[in-house]
């Protein structure tokens, strides 16, 4: 156990973000310097609040099964080398989760029953940031090669985790990515102010040194067809994400100035990093309306703030969630409560329980306003409240309503793999699709989800591929998703 009286002596303290008025003028992370370094003065005390419970529910809360009490104890004892070894044993990329995970481990922390939970996510990012800074993250190339080849399609967190595990197991792995740079949504979805891209670059460099081969700018399904892929490789991992965005086909949808979040965010990310984008979709001086809450909506909000929007309104069809855990979502489940992201601290207005009826245009064919109406959920269905219709100014409308699954045209159709009832690539308990030797990991199989799940699935799929190729595996297998009822 860390400090036996830690949780009695010390309250919860989290990393302090930079002042809003400073950070909205740049694209850097909202924490000063490296968040891990910023946390150093408080993190030993915070790790010491861990009670090392007999049954650590935080393990169950974390999809990766991170061995949280062990690294809390090591941090408290100032054994940072031991802590990073324990953390890397279950998580390939703690710098991603330590910055971006919604931390379902913390809502499952036993201390959270009647006190504030341990700051698990902050401890995690402190361990990995310190490890990088002190040169303790070395490449781990395999000692021997199996002679087997694997193609990983997609370079998001699922593809990267699968590729790193399989390369280290001795297989020859090529990661194909249609974008010009590696990283999936970590690269072009998530803005720099949430995670600077240097963290992705550093991992990709480590993986290259371990022997993983990266092929960016290749749309698999074009020249490299599904058949050729299967001829050339002994196994294939589909980690193509869930990229078909949900649309809103109401009157006026065709007007100029209405875009999907994933048309807007990648351009903003490129420009933030010094690239030039012709005809960039920008928020400067405009009344911006974001339709949909969630991470994507918050990222559009923070980006529009930094681009200098005149006003930003975020619309949500569901009612405002409660401030504290509702009775129906008791500890240790992950509750739906009102959350304030860094972007919400910076401005914008959130409007709940409203539905968009139509978009109204100006003489040039661009959107100028949005007509909405209040709604209630009654008897499981949505009802509009008569007399509450109103217009709000909207010169840039961004859709952040989620994604419906992987793209079917191209590779998925060429392979002819079965889909599940939600349109994702179907897989069995070993992450294998209906085609032998073709595996699925991350959002492509799970549907739109989280980075922590993508890494967990990439690791699990890698173990299944290794067993398929060699008959057995020593790669760790995270607990199957069906065994984890606590996490949304
Ligand atoms: C804007 C936004 C913000 C988010 N913020 C968070 C957050 O803060 N925290 C969190 O936990 N989750 C967040 N998420 C969700 C998270 O990013 C995803 O769950 C996660 O990235 C899924 O990982 P993946 O590897 O399955 O797929 P992705 O990251 O989507 O990567 C798939 C990759 O496959 C490539 N690809 C697809 N088809 C082909 C093909 N035919 N050939 C070659 N390449 C192909 C794509 O270009 C893409 O790069 C966010 C999502 C979005 C959209
Ligand atoms: S990956 Fe997420 S759930 Fe797991 S320990 Fe880190 S913050 Fe918690």
UniProtKB/TrEMBL annotation:
Q: Which pathway features in its UniProt record?
A: Amino-acid biosynthesis
| Ranges for domain 4Fe-4S ferredoxin-type | 40-72
Q: What InterPro entries does its record include?
A: 4Fe4S_Fe-S-bd, DPD_II, FAD/NAD-bd_sf, FAD/NAD-binding_dom, Glut_synth_ssu1, Glutamate_Synthase, Helical_ferredxn
Q: Which GO terms describe its biological process?
A: glutamate biosynthetic process
Coiled-coil spans are none
**Which Pfam families does the entry mention?**
Fer4_20 (PF14691), Pyr_redox_2 (PF07992)
Top-level taxon of the source organism: Bacteria
Q: Which UniProt keywords apply?
A: Amino-acid biosynthesis, Glutamate biosynthesis, Iron, Iron-sulfur, Metal-binding, Oxidoreductase
Q: NCBIfam families in the record, alphabetically?
A: GOGAT_sm_gam
The protein in question is named: Glutamate synthase (NADH) small subunit
């Amino acid at each position: 156990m860390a400090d036996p009286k830690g949780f009695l002596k010390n309250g919860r303290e989290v990393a302090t973000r930079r002042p809003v008025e400073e950070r909205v003028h740049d694209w850097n992370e909202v924490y000063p310097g490296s968040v891990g370094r910023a946390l150093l003065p408080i993190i030993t005390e915070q790790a010491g609040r861990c009670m090392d419970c007999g049954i650590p529910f935080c393990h169950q809360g974390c999809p990766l099964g991170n061995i949280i009490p062990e690294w809390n104890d090591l941090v408290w004892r100032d054994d940072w080398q031991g802590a990073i070894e324990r953390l890397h044993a279950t998580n390939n990329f703690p710098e991603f989760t330590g910055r971006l995970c919604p931390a379902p481990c913390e809502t499952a922390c036993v201390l959270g029953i009647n006190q504030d939970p341990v700051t698990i996510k902050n401890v995690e990012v402190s361990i990995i940031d310190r490890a990088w800074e002190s040169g303790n993250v070395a490449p781990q190339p395999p000692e021997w090669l199996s002679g087997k080849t694997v193609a990983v399609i997609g370079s998001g967190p699922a593809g990267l985790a699968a590729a790193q595990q399989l390369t280290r197991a001795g297989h020859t792995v090529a990661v194909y990515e249609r974008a010009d740079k590696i990283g999936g949504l970590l690269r072009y979805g998530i803005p720099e102010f949430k995670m600077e891209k240097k963290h992705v670059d550093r991992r990709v460099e480590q993986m290259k040194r371990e022997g993983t081969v990266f092929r960016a700018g290749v749309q698999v399904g074009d020249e490299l067809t599904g058949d050729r892929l299967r001829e050339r490789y002994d196994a294939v991992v589909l980690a193509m994400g869930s990229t078909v965005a949900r649309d809103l086909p109401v009157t006026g949808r065709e007007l100029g100035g209405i875009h999907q979040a994933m048309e807007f965010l990648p351009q903003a990310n490129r420009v933030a990093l010094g690239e030039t984008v012709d005809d960039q979709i920008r928020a400067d001086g405009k009344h911006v309306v974001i339709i949909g809450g969630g991470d994507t909506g918050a990222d559009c909000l923070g980006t529009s703030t930094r681009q200098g929007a005149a006003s930003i309104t975020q619309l949500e069809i569901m009612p405002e969630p409660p401030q504290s855990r509702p009775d129906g979502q008791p500890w240790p489940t992950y509750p739906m409560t009102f959350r304030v992201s860094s972007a919400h601290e910076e401005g914008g207005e959130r409007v709940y329980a409203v539905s968009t009826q139509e978009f109204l245009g100006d003489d040039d064919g661009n959107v100028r306003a949005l007509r909405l109406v209040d709604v209630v959920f009654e008897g499981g269905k949505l009802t509009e409240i008569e007399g509450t219709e109103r217009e709000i100014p909207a010169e840039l409308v961004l859709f952040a309503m989620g994604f419906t699954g992987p793209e079917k045209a191209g590779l998925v159709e060429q392979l002819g793999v079965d889909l599940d009832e939600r349109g994702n690539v179907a897989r069995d308990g070993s992450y294998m699709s209906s085609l032998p030797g073709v595996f699925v990991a991350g959002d492509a199989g799970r549907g739109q989800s989280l980075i922590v799940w993508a890494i967990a699935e990439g690791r699990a799929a890698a173990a299944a591929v290794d067993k398929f190729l060699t008959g057995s595996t020593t790669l760790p297998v995270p607990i199957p998703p069906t065994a984890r009822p606590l996490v949304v």
